[in-house]
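Re: weekly structure request thread

Next one in the queue (151 aa):
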Amino acid sequence: MKTLANDLDQQEILNRIAELSKSENAKWGRMSVHEMICHLNDSYCVPLGEKRVSPDTGVLQRTVFKWIALWAPIQWMKGYPTRPEIEQGRGGTPPNEFEADRAALRLVFMRFCKALPQTSFSHPVFGPMGAHEWGRWGYLHADHHLRQFGH
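Done, posted below.
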């Protein structure tokens, strides 16, 4: 299973981010490719403790939903609501300059990957997660949004 704890999987995601063009259209959803870059950046800042996100969790989300999202061999559901603090058009970081925002995403992505062994923050939906779970989530979240733009 792919995880950001693996150097090859990290490089795969970085390569896919590098392939993005600001003129690409989404296959689903409302975000532009530039907004998606900012959304991913915000999302990796949460487990680093750099961005606060309100919790929306319960017993089912912390157990069944978390297991399905991280370990079931299915692609993530399209259109699943995100927390308002990282949602574009609400509390998410607005796009500025495409190349600068992409460079910022690469940097926070690498800091997230490096910090995995020490990550102790709770996911807003899935609750407490260990390094193995954060590594899996980090890969799947990027993969989901990169597929949104055909990458």
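The chain has five helices and two strands. Strands lie at 122-123, 127-128.
Next request, please.
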